Amino acid sequence: MIYLDHNATAPLRPEARRAMEPWLGRPANPMSPHALGREAAMAVDRARQSVADAVGFPRDGVIFTSGATESNTTLLSRGRWAASATEHPSVLAYAAAVIPVDGEGRVILGDLDGADGISVQAANNETGVVQDLPAVAAYARSRGLRLHVDAAQAPGRIALDHLRLADFVTISAHKIGGPQGVGALLARVPFEPLFRGGGQERGLRAGTHHVAGIVGLGAAIGEALPMSPALRDRLEAGLGALGGRVVGRDRLPNTSCVLFPGWEAADLVIALDLRGFCASAGAACASGAQRRSPVLAAMGIAATGLRLSLGPTTTAAEIDAVVAALGDILSG
Amino acid sequence: MRIVVAMSGGVDSSVAAALLREEGHEVIGVHMKLHDNHGGEGHCCGLDDAWDARRVADRLGIPFYVLDLQEAFAEAVVNPYVDAWKAGLTPNPCVTCNGVLKFRVLLRRAALLGAEKLATGHYARTHDGRLFMAADPAKDQSYFLHPVPSTALQKTLFPLGEFTKREVREHARRLGLVTAEKAESMEVCFVPGDDHAAFVSRHAPDLEAAGEIVDEAGQVLGQHEGYHRYTLGQRRGLGLAGGPWFVIAVDPGARRVVVGPEHRLLRHEVFARGVNLIRPPGTGELHARLRHRGALVPCEILSLDPLQLRLLAPARAITPGQSVVVYEGDELCLGGVIARAA
Predict the structure, then answer these.
(1) Which ipTM did the prediction report?
(2) Cβ of A266 and B67 within 8 Å?
(3) Is B299 assigned a catalytic role?
(4) Which of A271, A286, A292 sits opposite B112 (nearest CB)?
């Protein structure tokens, strides 16, 4: 099995697994006053520091959540937000206005009436298109708008230097080799909590901490260094030779969204699956159904692309194998 | 042999997949997501039927894929269904789906996946591109399959063709399939609560307009609230004095429903369009079927294209929009959509 779907979810990094193991099965509630509780509290604190350091936010601005969707919902379900047309559905679900993108997937920043803030992703999950965050941040600052950046796909792929320009950042653990079911919302300014109750996370996110998961996120983000685009470029050279057209220009070094004229991406995903390759057509959907991509539609492309997303353990031999398999499928 | 099986999530297609697997074939399950009649926007996936099919596929240890065909289905089946009611017809969307969508899409996938055959859970039999009734006459579904071209039938298997429903359920139980006891649906799959009038009204609100119920002489006997609520031969719900009255025609142009005594529903000649000829009839006795589960009526073919049939015994309420198929023995030779009867 060759796994080329890291933007859907990535394998657990060994460092994250090792960090999590002591916390699986240990009765560790960071809110407890006893020794085990204190130990857990310190483990969560170290993870908080690790996330803060990676993203360039103050440690106390890191709030752990159940994942990127919860982080996005917490922030965007309050107030009036304008969001780019290619945002994740958990952002678009609450957007009061949509910021269009151009044919390359970059936001077109024009007049916005009545929004308190804008939400622009660091990089798109389907196409890998990277937004020009310094320009977006300058735009937000000049108009007095809050800036939220969904950075679920950024760590482990690109440098995170520009995230510090945002007021809020969303982080996901499982896209970067941490465990599923944990993420963070980073905030420089106050926000309304979504979950109220036991006072965890300074009252900003009630609910007992997922200690093992949080520790895993802390370990994974510390290891999540930018990737080289070399293998992606090798892949795209192969896809191009097969007649594929890659969508978007400035992209993550691990993501290729490719169109083959006359082919449905869903068909290619199935054919690859039967040959032992994991890829996707657009984003993953709950029942595995495939439909037209709203992300590509926003870019003026009426199709769904085949998405191949690489990880830190992907090899050149795997790239050559998937290109060969696609060549076989397309010629059959 | 590599075979793609269309898995609806019902017991029939579950067992079809299981039987092929037991025969040692390499089976790939495919579920077509056609619509979302559970309502609610953005309710993108995870419907019960797809999950039942997925559970069965997992149990059988076969790969399984969901194909989202909602847009194509709306265009090819749902919209024509609404248009047919507007035109005063009583459409059969399952026939449309088999004819223009299901087999075409599935055969394309099958070819792409390198599969030699496509299989479905229909109760019918096929070999050499020909189509036959199922061994169990109570379950026979060949009527619905009449628009499938012979070239498609050549690549199709109906593993349940020799089975009774009871045997199919027993087999599902023996294998512990979650779909073994699932209730059978006789409804149009995309029409909630089997209420076609409410569904059509929602999609074509202008049909709600009132009109006249008249007798054959044009005398007004009453009013109706949309002619799409009426189908040929209908007796109930007319609310007229005297009678008994039966719907004998629907005139969409005048928005009129025409009623008359029952004997006016009897006809001897059928005209059909969109005829699919699977095998030219031979010299044997021919029988027509004019609705699903309808009686077999002895007939002669007066013309093949356009199709014109003479019935050797009169038939009641031959309904435009439904299909007529012609059997020679147990073989379905041809079928089309009824345009009118005389």
Answers:
(1) 0.80
(2) yes
(3) no
(4) A271
